[in-house]
Amino acid sequence: MDVTPPDPRRWWGLVVIGVAQLMVVLDMTIVNIALPSAQADLGMSDGNRQWVITAYTLAFGGLLLLGGRIADLVGRKRTFIIGLIGFAAVSGLGGAAQSPGLLFAARALQGVFAALLAPSALSLLTTTFSDPKERGKAFGVFGAIAGGGAAIGLILGGVLTSYLNWRWCLYVNIPIAALAVAGAVVLLHDQTRHPEAHLDVPGAILGSGGLLAIVYGFSEAESRGWADARVLTCLGAGVVLLVVFAYWQSRARVPLLPLHVVRDRQRAGAMLTMMMATIGMFGMFLFLTYYLQRVQGYSPVRTGLSYLPLTAAMITGSTQIAARLLGRVSPRALLVPGMVTAACGLLWMARLDVRPQYLSHVLPGIVLLGLGMGVVFMTTISTATAGVAPQDAGAASASLNTAQQVGGSIGTALLNTIAASVTARYLLHRPGPRTKPLIDEASVHGFNVASYWAVAVVLLGALIAAVVVNAPASAVRAMGAPVDPPAERDAVELKKG
User: Fold this and answer.
1) pTM given for the model
2) For the ranges 45-59, 261-275, 386-400, the one whose mean pLDDT is highest
3) What distance separates the 2 farthest-apart alpha carbons in the chain?
4) Contact indicator for 173, 27 with CB cutoff of 8 Å
5) CA angle, corner 460, sides to 458 and 462, nearest 5?
6) Quick one: 10-190+256-478 is in which CATH superfamily?
7) Residue 254 has what DSSP assignment?
8) 3-class DSSP assignment, residue 329
């Protein structure tokens, strides 16, 4: 059997893929620090400002499965380049926005092109590195980018907002995308498109509609409350649509998401663990940013720089711990300690008060959180995409990205709703004038209570990893090359026989 030699420029290709992934991930958080400036400049109301964040995550999380299947259908390199160009164009549109509505629309379009770009990037990485040792290193770098990109976005957002203005948080994507496009044209190669790949239109409508409804429902719960009719209707409709989607996928000739991709025990466990991790982590980003700026009085750039230890810890956890150990120990032996370490970091930060406590509480907490999440992100990415048939690489990559984005959206909405309600209840039982010290005290109390909920969610993720992910280290070493499903089924039948 002919074996195609590895591309000698594959590591430069990893740089291109990493740059594109960094752009996508950091755009989830880069506007967080710039949001107060953008709100004042464009005259947004407090009730509408959330759409600067939510419009992006809604479109991104809801359309990822469709984007992954389009990548399988028309070619991953092609969709990768189209996604980069489109992302850059609408970033420029958002940066030039003179009204809140135009900014919201541009952020939604960013999510659309990110949903096309992100699965293509991970699929290209999966098919470029087939050697298990090289794949471990490549996924270590990719995992560090996926985990640290959000923190880098906070740092970059603070620097750009402080020294230029909030619009550069969007303009910055244009040169990044231009470099990535040039590198992709020269360095990346794609496998031949699969003739059996078709676009499952009913599946796309059901799956994307279900995810959009759920993410929208969680987003609206922040301002409307959990008992609101619109919130309950969206959540219920989303669940129904996803149930019908799963039924249709079992009947469709060429499903949008082949159920064997997520039915695999290791892959399903990795995706659920990723979702639990991002629920806790992205809620923390929102709380800690407001704590540092509003309570402690940090400038945007100082707030961004405060996240540097988190980024360094994530890179360390991903490249120096997980990448070195994966293949020698089982994924479960990395996921469980990683999630527990991250939970300890969140627990440490759940004891904040209004006094300056960066060195005593914030710094140790974000270091523990970063180390744990770095290990978890790299391990889940490697486990969820290993052993996937080439024609299903886009769907598997999109499923993992969906778990991450939906988890981040749910975490932001869920934990923020908890924090807001606890803060309001705290103020309700404190009669008298609403002075800044009292508001700060109430806000920190709400943050702490929500952080305890985040700890519980991350520990639930550790339990899922412990129970569901049971592949031994030997199996992980063997998962480097894609597996052809018919051959896999034949092997199973022979074993049964």
Assistant:
1) 0.76
2) 261-275
3) 80
4) yes
5) 75
6) MFS general substrate transporter like domains (1.20.1250.20)
7) S
8) strand
